[in-house]
Design a protein that fits this description.
The complex is a heterodimer of chains A (492) and B (599).
Chain A lengths: L1 H11 L4 H27 L1 H5 L6 H8 E2 L3 E2 L5 E7 L5 E5 L6 H4 L8 H5 L1 H5 L5 H10 L3 E2 L2 E4 L3 H11 L4 E6 L6 E7 L7 H10 L14 E2 L6 H11 L8 E4 L2 E4 L2 E4 L7 E4 H6 L3 H9 L3 H10 L26 H8 L7 E2 H12 L3 E3 L4 E5 L5 E4 L4 E4 L3 H17 L10 E11 L7 E13 L2 E2 L4 E7 L5 H16 L8
Parallel strand pairs in A: 1-5, 2-6
Antiparallel strand pairs in A: 2-3, 3-4, 6-16, 7-8, 7-22, 9-14, 10-13, 11-12, 15-18, 16-17, 19-20, 20-21, 20-22
Helix pairs in contact in A: 9-18, 11-17, 13-15
Chain B lengths: L1 H27 L10 H26 L3 H23 L5 H21 L1 H27 L7 H18 L1 E3 L2 E7 L2 E3 L1 H17 L5 H20 L3 H19 L2 H21 L1 H11 L10 H13 L22 H9 L1 H25 L3 H24 L17 H60 L5 H11 L6 H8 L14 H16 L2 H4 L7 H9 L5 H9 L2 H10 L2 H17 L1
Helix pairs in contact in B: 1-2, 1-14, 2-3, 2-4, 3-4, 3-5, 4-5, 4-14, 5-16, 6-7, 6-8, 7-8, 7-9, 7-15, 7-16, 8-9, 9-10, 9-15, 10-11, 12-13, 13-14, 14-15, 14-16, 15-16, 16-23, 21-22
The chains are: A alpha+beta (492), B mainly alpha (599).
């Protein structure tokens, strides 16, 4: 036994500490490098294939026939086929209808065609299919993309918007699914190559801009939602005891604002100020807000940051409010004028959160990727972003938005089949007085007896330069709600 | 054809799995200490190696439809097989792991080069096979030429001259002066100078770690690095620096040198960054290659495209487009391999390189802190750091420096140097084995002598006893018994009774020593062992005398050096522990004989 211990002692001397340390150092270095390589290649797979310097996309396109894009009911929105001369043709079945949301696959790509390009050019087809195609000397079928888009709602929304420029977004507040997304003016994706130059030259209409996600608009009266949230937050006990007597205008120093179209609303409480969209009353409320806290609330409501929308590139809504913001600006901001710029998607998300007890679900448009035989490769579940407002605030806001339909600017939405709530807006733009964008943002749900069920859909609409929201945007919303609940419109 | 589709689809999985198995075997090697026990592993590795080679070329043939590739494959396979067999035949004591990995890396190289550029693959194959033959004789020289450690000045001058020649006469390729042509053949002297440099540092530092010696080494190292920076060959400049840094650290066992060297290196790097625009360009291309994708960032971004498109199992041979990367065969071969054979394969390749490195470090550790140990260490660092530079550079883990992946990249100088490097290590490994064998022999001799002595003693006592017995033949038996007990009086008293019954019965003293004689003898040998250092005892001993000189000559060296000297005695410990037990000893002898018969 003694001998063994002696041996061990002696053996340890053979071990060279310095060499051991250096060896461990290099092993650690290689371990770190391996982890880095695996991580880099996995996380950058999709991003890098879209780079225009990467020729691999072209190689894949030569090997595989581009995948199809489906609507939520399985209708094909886009598919590819090879014509007699061997060229691959992208067939947009609905023409202009899904122009912005589905996008196009050439000239830098756009929409789903761009975001999911990686899957649309790669294939997970079973080997048997590949062998069969090889035998026929045909391309392999690439993977397909299944969306949440609803063809019917998209059609109704597009028709309802008509010839106006503007945008419509229809989403499911409880899941974040995007059911329809319209931006006008639209274009035919099949003719994108032909018309490319004219689109580029045309800087005035901005055909290629997806107004639903990329456009930043003055929020107008819809911004009163945010002002109200802040007011309720600051006065959780006594917001209901707010009273104001509207004389048609509100002045602070040199700054003077008027109610829309010179209306005089008279005596108002908090809810009726909101329902009737009284500018003077809200300017007054704005003056009573804590500017710093208001700024924080706005940041919490996703102002000044990237929206959590993985399927879309949205413009960042900008609005900074703090102690240094002058009062003159505050009365403008409180009614959504002045330096307020908001994207349609952003307003839709805020409305969804109100309808969903303050919890925001991340909007998404692609449900799953599947191979040519429909076998799921990857699926996307609805994902919670988090709570952007309190449950109580959301509840009060819902009551107020209901009042808008009952007694305010959204009366046209009143009906017996479903309940609808919302807020209208008429956002003045440019220097010409009186010209305004018509806004509507709101949601609808069914009755269960006298009780209201959870809201089903949420709609946000902007009609550029149309006029008052109540007159131009609300009827569009009505048509979409009706279509969603399967109500045929009776001719008036 | 249908079959083709299936082969293309499944071959990549087969190739990756074969590579995984091969890598696992690489590390299984470290579980066994004896080369003899590793034989099974080595044979399995050879089978996997050929499986990989065969699979890959089958795919290449199907994809290209060229039968000529089949012939090329057959010749390659033959050469690699010959390499494995020849090494084992010429040098029975070589380390199988290094030989196997060398051949595995070469076959990976031939596969990917054939896929990238057939003509380059053929050229590389020619150079590779010639280099293999050249490398075959290297271990012999390393083992037998004892002069190598005294050529300090020769190494220093040769290294600086070779690099200087490139600076003065070398041709500039893509901004860097790296090659020099003689008679139509283009050489990259920096590759060879790496080896010379390792020999230089080892010969300068194995004797003395005095400040003057370290300073001298540092100056020569600085000249090497400086010339390479002027040649704009940043990769080899860094390699020289790192070899120098770690070798000084291990030779002197002084962490202060490492810290000093690192800070000096960092200072020099900052200085160089401000004064050389090509370094600034490299750094810019590392920090944000996307902003300079048209110019300095083009290479690295193309490499990143390749790696990111690979996926775990790769795209399969001929399914990707690695040729879009400029210089893919030289600096970015790893990216090409990853793209077509997969991330798993790439990581396994790195692990194979790491296993070579670990083996070299073990050899170095076993060789002790003398000249040979330092050489093994320096070459190991040279190898692994080069792998790190090229793979890290190609994947944007570190800035790009443009060095080749040893054994795999296209390049004659590179493959020749690496093969020579491995051959040197094989030579060192054999020196280590020789030393072990010598020590074993000495130990055996020692044991034999002792045994002889014991036997004679025993015989003498027996005779004495017999003589006494015959003299007192008529006296009582008890007397003889008493005589016995006198002899054994140090032992347990119980012994007396037993001896009375049967003198030859074995006492239950020890599990390893079976007779009283053995027990006593063992005790004696133990004493003997701790009294004397057999190395001092043996004046003919060769190999480590340098260390002993160092110990004797350097009055400043203290305990540290004694430790070093003792650490060289490992063989003695090993074999003394093993051969105490006679049975085991005999078995070992038998095994040895069998081995001889086999050979």
């Amino acid at each position: 036994m003694k001998k063994n211990k002696e041996e061990k002692k002696k053996r340890k001397r053979r071990f060279n500490l310095q060499i051991f340390v250096v060896t461990c150092f290099f092993i650690a270095l290689f371990a770190a490098m391996s982890v880095y390589i695996v991580n880099y290649s996995v996380t950058h797979k999709i991003e890098l294939i879209s780079n225009s310097y990467n020729t691999r996309a072209k190689v894949l396109a030569k090997k595989n026939i581009r995948g199809s894009i489906y609507a939520n009911d399985g209708q094909v929105l886009v598919s590819s086929y090879v014509d007699g001369s061997g060229t691959e043709i992208r067939d947009y079945k609905f023409g202009k209808l899904f122009s912005h949301v589905v996008g196009y696959s050439i000239n830098g790509r756009m929409g789903i065609e761009d975001r999911y390009n990686y899957y649309l050019i790669n294939t997970n087809a079973p080997v048997s299919v590949k062998a069969e195609k090889d035998q026929k000397n045909e391309k392999y079928p690439a993977d397909d993309v299944y969306t949440t888009l609803d063809v019917n709602l998209q059609k109704v929304a597009s028709d309802a918007l008509g010839v106006y420029r503007g945008a419509v977004i229809v989403t499911e507040p409880s899941t974040g699914k995007v059911l329809a997304m319209v931006s006008k003016p639209d274009f035919d994706p099949a003719l994108i190559a032909e018309n490319w130059n004219s689109y580029l030259e045309d800087t005035e209409t901005g055909v290629l801009v997806n107004r639903a996600t990329q456009g930043l608009y003055p929020a107008g009266s819809t911004f009163k939602i945010l002002t109200s949230i802040e007011y309720i937050k600051e006065n959780p006990e006594n917001y209901n005891s707010y009273r104001y007597n509207c004389t048609g205008s509100f002045s602070k120093g040199d700054e003077r604002i008027q109610c829309y179209h010179g209306s005089v609303h008279g005596s108002l409480d908090f809810t009726t100020s909101f329902a009737k969209s009284c500018n003077s009353s809200f300017a007054n409320i704005g003056m009573n807000l804590n500017k710093n806290k208001f700024g924080q609330t706005l940041d919490q409501m996703l102002f000044n940051s990237e929206l959590p929308t993985e399927d879309f590139d949205c413009a960042v809504s900008r609005l900074n409010v703090n102690d240094e913001t002058p009062d003159a600006d505050m009365i403008q901001i409180a009614i959504g004028q002045g330096p307020v710029g908001i994207s349609v998607m952003h307003l839709n998300m805020v409305t969804c959160a109100i309808a969903n007890d303050g919890i925001l679900m991340k909007p998404y448009v692609v449900e799953k990727i599947a191979n040519c035989e429909g076998k799921s490769i990857k699926s996307y579940k609805s994902e919670k972003y988090g709570s952007i407002m309190g449950v109580d605030e959301a509840k009060v806001l819902r009551e107020m938005m209901e009042a808008v339909v009952k007694e305010g600017t959204g009366k046209r939405l009143k009906n017996d089949n479903y309940y609808a709530c919302g807020k209208t807006g008429s956002a003045e733009y440019g220097s010409v007085k009186g010209e305004s964008h018509a806004w509507f943002t709101g949601y609808a749900g069914l009755y269960d007896g006298k009780e209201k069920c959870e809201p089903d859909i949420c709609i946000t609409i902007i009609v550029e330069g149309a006029g008052a929201g109540g007159e131009y945007a609300v009827p569009i919303a009505k048509r979409i709600f009706d279509a969603y609940y399967g109500i045929t419109i009776e001719p008036e | 054809m249908n079959l083709e589709t299936y082969i293309n689809e499944f071959s990549k999985y087969v190739i990756a799995i074969v590579m995984i198995l091969y890598t696992v075997e690489c590390f299984m090697v470290f579980l066994h200490k004896d080369e003899e026990e590793r034989k099974g592993i080595y044979i399995r590795q050879n089978i996997l190696m050929f499986a990989f080679h065969f699979c890959s070329f089958m795919v290449i043939c199907f994809e290209t439809g060229k039968i000529s590739y089949l012939l090329f494959y057959a010749i390659q396979q033959m050469v690699l097989y010959m390499a494995v067999v020849l090494y084992k035949w010429l040098y029975p004591k070589t380390n199988g792991l290094i030989v196997n990995n060398m051949c595995m890396l070469m076959s990976i190289s031939f596969v990917i080069l054939t896929r990238l550029d057939y003509s380059k693959a053929v050229k590389q194959f020619m150079i590779g096979s010639t280099s293999l033959v050249v490398a075959l004789i290297i271990p012999f020289f390393i083992r037998n030429i004892k002069l190598l450690k005294n050529l300090k000045w020769v190494y220093a001058v040769a290294g600086i001259l070779l690099l200087g020649v490139v600076y003065i006469l070398g041709s500039t390729t893509y901004g860097s002066k790296i090659s020099y042509s003689i008679g139509g053949l283009s050489f990259q002297p920096a590759e060879f100078v790496k080896l010379i440099f390792v020999f230089f540092v080892a010969s300068a530092l194995y004797q003395s770690h005095s400040i003057t010696e370290v300073l001298f080494t540092s100056i020569v190292a600085a000249v090497h690095v400086g010339i390479q920076v002027l040649n704009k060959d940043l990769g080899s400049a860094l390699i020289f620096f790192v070899i120098y840094l770690f070798m000084v650290f291990v030779a002197t066992k002084n962490i202060i040198y490492l810290a000093l060297g690192l800070s000096a290196g960092a200072g020099a790097a900052v200085f160089a960054y401000h004064f050389f625009s090509h370094i600034q360009v490299r750094v810019q291309a590392f920090i944000d290659p996307w902003s300079v994708i048209d110019s300095a960032g083009y290479q690295i971004t193309q490499s990143l495209f390749a790696i990111s498109s690979a996926g775990m199992w790769g795209l399969g041979l001929f399914q990707g487009t690695p040729n879009t990367i400029p210089f893919v065969e030289d600096d970015f071969i790893f990216s090409a391999i990853v793209e077509e054979m997969g991330i798993i394969f790439g990581i396994c390749l790195l692990l194979v390189c790491v296993s070579i490195f670990i083996m070299i470090m073990i050899i170095s550790s076993d060789l002790g802190n003398g000249f040979y140990g330092l050489i093994a260490f320096g070459l190991g660092i040279c190898y692994i750091f080069q792998v790190f530079l090229t793979v890290g550079g190609g994947t944007k883990f570190i800035p790009l420096t443009g060095v080749t992946l040893p054994m795999v990249s296209y390049g004659g100088s590179s493959i020749l140097t690496t093969l020579v490097m491995f051959a040197i290590i094989e030579g060192l490994y054999m020196i280590r084995e020789d030393e072990a064998a010598k020590a074993k022999k000495r130990r055996e001799e020692l044991i034999r002598k002792k045994k002889e002595k014991r036997r004679k003693e025993k015989l003498r006592k027996k005779k004495l006893r017999e003589k006494r017995a015959s003299e007192e033949y008529y006296e009582d038996d008890i007397l003889a018994y008493e005589d016995d007990s006198y002899e054994y009086k140090d032992e347990k008293p119980a012994r007396k009774k037993a001896s009375h019954v049967n003198k030859d019965a074995r006492p239950p003293y020890s599990k390893t020593a079976h007779t009283y004689e053995e027990v006593k003898y063992k005790h004696e040998v133990d004493l003997y062992e701790y009294e004397e250092d057999p190395y001092d005892y043996d004046p003919d001993r060769q190999g480590y005398d340098g260390d002993i000189h160092a110990y004797e000559e350097d009055p400043q060296a203290e305990d540290d050096d004694i430790d070093i000297r003792v650490s060289n005695d490992f063989e003695l410990e090993d074999y003394t522990t093993i051969y105490y037990n006679e049975e085991e000893h005999e078995e070992e002898q038998r095994r040895k004989e069998k081995k001889k018969k086999k050979i």
